[in-house]
Each structure stands twice: as structure tokens, then as C-alpha cells.
Specification:
The chain has no helices and 28 strands. By secondary structure, the chain is mainly beta. The strands form 9 sheets. A 4-stranded mixed β-sheet has the order 9-7-13-11, with no helix packed on it. The protein has a 4-stranded antiparallel β-sheet with strand order 19-20-23-24, with no helix packed on it. It has a 4-stranded antiparallel β-sheet with strand order 25-26-27-28, with no helix packed on it. β15 and β16 form a beta hairpin. The radius of gyration is 32 Å and the shape is elongated. The termini are far apart. 29% of the residues are buried. The model has no long low-confidence stretch (mean pLDDT 92).
Length: 336
Amino acid sequence: MSTQGQGSVALNPPGPTYPEGTSVTLTANPAAGWYFDHWEGALTGSTNPATLVMDVDKAVTAVFLQYQYTLTVSVTGQGSVALNPTGPTYPSGTTVTLTANAASGWHFDHWEGALTGSTNPATLVMDANKTVTAVFVQTTSGPIILMTFTGATTVPGVGSVANEDIVAYDVGLNTWSLYFDGSDVGLSSFAIDALARLPSGELLISVDVSGNLAGLTGGPNGTAITSSDIVKFTPTSLGANTAGTWSFYFDGSDVGLTTTSENIDALAVLPNGNLLISTTGSPSVPGLSGLSDADILQFTPTSLGSTTAGTYLMYLDLSTKGIATSADVNAVEIVE
């Protein structure tokens, strides 16, 4: 009786010498991290336990194989992860060292998934399939300004960006970076013309034309959106490899924004969750009259998503502040 790999075989009766005609039961018992695969010699196949009749001298080999597990690694932000050994598939029990390497202007923050904490390098033992995410955070020395452009624009250190992209300017470091690549997530046929960032890091976006946004969930008309709607992007990664999910956030047609001149082109979120919006033309909304595209409206939602409801208030009438009603507010933010 012999084994290949790590494991043992129990004999019943124990043997190894038997009277002629004895029926012997062989039970293969793999070691931790291994499994019984098959018999060789006087036994074949993979039945376990197995029996044989002793009518001559016989030799049997139990073949054990080691479990193999896969390590899946992803990143949030900009950086990479080195694995030692390289993987991604490892024999059971292998200790893997993961080293997070941040891209320029970013730093490693923490691990998620099968690893937690911020130790770097970090190790884990492969005793199952595992998933690890390395989270990188942009290194800053001052305020970060997010912006979009109306057309293709060359940005220092980034290159040409399109009107569906968002770039970030670090005031302290005087550096530019690509924050959001719209072409990665289905925005190639749109331009971003209103943008707000939530404290969670999610983005609220309104676009310039009607169309279909691939992957959008929760909308009243499938993936269809209009320029009076707001969608929410929940990122899993940003930068040159933008990824995440889209969900429907605000249906303008439910609350009076039904024409192309009521395209939302300025957007902000107050600390209480109320929305500030302005439109390209003169809007007509319930409860207010005589509006122009120079006005900033506050919307207090009672519900959001595919069934949007709430009330409007005049937040800022710029005609009372010396601004002509022919002016068009094209961006808005609250600085406290």
C-alpha cells in the first residue's frame, strides 16, 4: 500500500498480510488541504471506500491532490498590487504577500475583503477562494476642484479630455488628474452639464440631451434619461479606469421640468439633502411663477428616484441682485 500526495489509507482488516479470499476495504483519508483523487494499481477509479479480494499479492496507490484556490485582486483609486508568489491560483495553504503600490499623487489607504486594515505589505493564507481590494486615496495638499468642459480640452499632465469626463485640479499641488472617464461607463453620447459630489463620494450628474444610459437601474423608462433628469453614479474605481453603477435619482418630468429649455445645467446639494438647480431656459414648476434661467431653485424632496415628488422654493432670484434675467446660471455650489 502506498500514497501519492499527502494522505493515508486505512485497511479493514488492517493487514498487510491476508488469507486467500479475504475481502479488504480501503479508505483513503486526505490530509488538510488535500483531497482523494483516484486509485492506481490493483484498484482503479475514485470510489472511496473501495474493496478488493486478496487472491494474489497486490499493490495499490492512493493518489491525493492538493486543493487549488484563486486570489482575485482589484483596486479602488489609482495604484497596483504585487503578489508574491505571483498567482492568481495557489495550492491550499500557500502564504501570499500582497504589496500595494500607489500611483503618483495617490497613497495606499486600506484593504477590503479577505484582508482588512492598512498593513502594507500584508499576508494571507490561501485556504479558500479569496477576493481582496486595495483602496488608494488621492494625496492632496489643498482643495480639490472637480470640473467638466463643454468640448474636447487639453489638460496638463492628462491630455485631451471630452465633455463626458471630469477632471480634478489640486490647488495645493498645482496638479491635474483625470477623475472620471465617462467613456468607460456609457456617457460617450452625452455631455455632463451639471455635477455634484455627495459626501459618500457618489456623483450626481445631469446630461445635455436625452438618450439611453447603459446599465442604469431604477428609471421610470428603463435606461432612458432626459436633460431634466439626475442620475447617480456609485464608483468602484475612478480615474483612467472608471467603473461603477448607475441609478436613477431625480425625474424632472414628475416635478414640472418637461421641456428641452428646462435642461438642468447647474446642480448642488445642501447639507440637508435638498437640491439646488438652475436650467438653461425659463422653467415652469409648481408653486412658482415668473422664473428665468438666472434663478436658482431649491427642491425639497419627499421622494426621489423613478417617482420624484417634493416642493420648490425660490432660493436665489438674481434679478434682485443686479443680474439681468437674460443671464444663465451655469454652475452653482454652496461654500460655508
